[in-house]
């Protein structure tokens, strides 16, 4: 992957209705922040990349409607820890659960998942 931000994070977030946001809230200004429009929910996604070697992301989401996510993912490895989550992945099917470390391998395939509305999702991810 030549650019983690433009090949992994940005396409997926923009497809889900996020926009780049200069207001980083409680997160460090060294990273990049994305938000959703207030009528869609309260959602902030912050990510920090370093020399295209890795990225660390924080997700803090509450959507007013169920979110269905589908995007073509590049090759990557991610480690995720969910403090709270209510959703599922579809291929292969797996219910997302909090309080455990999850590993995901992207391999140029289609990623499909959902996040239930009115449920808080908060996670720390490493790519």
Strand content bin = over 45%
Instruction: Tell me the quaternary state.
Output: single chain
Number of helices: 1
Low-confidence residue ranges:
none
Order of strands in the sheet with most strands = 1-2-3-4-11-6-9
N-to-C series of helices and strands: HEEEEEEEEEEE
Structural class: mainly beta
Helix coverage percent: under 10%
How many strands appear in the DSSP assignment? Answer: 11
Shape: globular
Radius of gyration: 14 Å
Can you summarize the main beta sheet? 7 strands, antiparallel
Gap between N and C termini, in Å?
A: 11 Å
What value does the average pLDDT take? 85
Explain the overall architecture.
A hairpin with a 3-residue loop joins strand 3 (41-50) and strand 4. The mean pLDDT is 85. The protein is globular, with a radius of gyration of 14 Å. The strands form two sheets. The chain has a seven-stranded antiparallel sheet with strand order 1-2-3-4-11-6-9, with helices on one face. Strands 5-10-7-8 form a four-stranded antiparallel sheet. It has one helix at 4-15; strands at 18-20, 32-36, 41-50, 54-63, 67-72, 76-84, 87-90, 93-95, 101-106, 110-115, 121-126. The protein is mostly beta strands and 127 residues long. It is built from one helix and eleven strands. 22% of the residues are buried.
